[in-house]
Amino acid sequence: MHIGGVKFSVPVWLAPMSGVSDLPFRRLAMRFGAGAVVSEMIACEQLSEGEDEALLKVKGDEVFSHIVQLAGREAKWMALGAKIARDNGADIIDINMGCPAKKVTSGYSGSALMKDLDHALTLIEATVKAVDCPVTLKMRLGWDDKSLNAADLAQRAEEAGVQMVTVHGRTRCQFYKGMANWPAIGAIKESISIPLIANGDVKNACDAENILETTKASGVMIGRGAYGKPWLVGHVGHYLSEGNLPTEPEGAYLVDVILEHYEMLLEHYGLEVGLRAARKHLSWYLEADKQRLKHTPLVERKKLLTSYDMHEVKDLIRIIFNRSFEKQKYQAA
Ligand SMILES: Cc1cc2nc3c(=O)[nH]c(=O)nc-3n(C[C@H](O)[C@H](O)[C@H](O)COP(=O)(O)O)c2cc1C
Description:
By secondary structure, the chain is of the alpha/beta class. About 50% of the residues lie in helices and about 15% in strands. The structure holds flavin mononucleotide. Flavin mononucleotide (FMN) binds near residues 15, 96, 99, 168 and 224.
């Protein structure tokens, strides 16, 4: 798949996820072979005003291609935000028209833009005009079941110069309920000639094969399935090209991955924020293996997820994430 002049040889991408796909997580996913990784959405107004949080989110050192997702409600902010992102090394600008969160849609951005396609187009056109790099668009199927207008939006976006679309197969009003509608994504794919990435409820290699088969999409995007598994996106990509799944990190290697992730978070956010940002990831690493979760005493779990002492947390990571490896070896023997 090509977007502008850029070739993407692995058709499995990490989804943009606020509070999850920050630079440390994207770096790890890339290292494990993700086809591409997309930044968390960044509010254009905040970026234009130089807010620290937005400036941190726009960073993309060691990530190739650096895809920055922008959210906004007015063309002028989108144009300005896109330029700033580009000046910060963005290779591709992705526009968010899929976020269902009330605090985003009540500000008429994210998926609320799907309620007024004429207005949505002004944002797209302004963004495309503002930068000399490819612009892509992420959307849902529509606002609700009565307004399934993603095909219309995708066609108009293509005419306006957008070079790829990603479709999450739910409406905004569904939030994350029910199942993503993969055939509906396939119908949108048929109506455009730019690449389409299919998204929604892909948790493993088998799901990825099925969504690609159903939608005939150029690629697949994985979000929640990668919680606690930064290797998943790359491993699914490997499966699609080689027909086999690499072994998941375990034992000492898993400990190294988690420790590195932990240290990257502390460096990226600073100690205070980093310690708290790390907790949800540590919790997902635990939940990713039910056996390990079962064998981790409550007192250790609690300390891991609440301690403000980074040395204590690191020691616990070494103990907890090596333990299941020893158990498996013991059980197998
Ligand atoms: C915690 C969380 C944060 C998200 N943040 C964003 C975001 O910043 N931008 C965006 O376009 N989508 C965002 N999404 C939606 C995901 O990119 C994706 O479309 C959705 O989770 C469906 O894919 P999945 O079933 O693989 O998780 C978010 C989803 C979650 C769960």
